[in-house]
Model the fold of this input.
Amino acid sequence: MIGLTKLPDVVELEVIEDFIRTTYPFFTIQEMRIAFKMAVQGKFDCNIEHYEKFSPKYISGIMNAYKGKANQVRKNLPPPPDPPTKQLTEEEIVEFTKNEWLNGKRDDFNKVFNAHKVFLILHNQGKLKITQDQILETIKVVREDNLFRINKMHPLDAKKFSQQIKNEDFIELQCKKLALVKYFENLPS
Done:
């Protein structure tokens, strides 16, 4: 694009790279390309003669001229795409929740993270098998814990919590959390 016939050697490229990284750290590669393209098109008031030398002096002449137009150019650039988010495997999801519980305070089963999803994963994998007696025992423990909590609460908080525990979905989630806690704590170390 700029008409160089002799490319810089390895040492010169290292010097140029260091110069660009330290002098123009806020410009993207895309902006560097735009700056050189605009310079070649004569859109800057700068000397674009390189004298067969791609040097820091030549680069700074173009980039300093570009600085004045950078904000205007940035407005017209599409935003960079978001990096793809890593999808966790089912094993990673379970492992995270297990470690959060086992390495945490272990003082309240209601603090188990992502319980619904982890419960389904373990249940679908056949690792979490619950008998009818275990279900009844879990419900009993959850109800006793809720009663204990209500008795320690401020009356306004207790009223709000008593409404929550009337919701079957809320109780079901509490039961899943307790079942997970029992499962995690009975795993071999």
Observations:
- The radius of gyration is 32 Å.
- The chain has two domains: 10-76, 90-185.
- The mean pLDDT is 87.
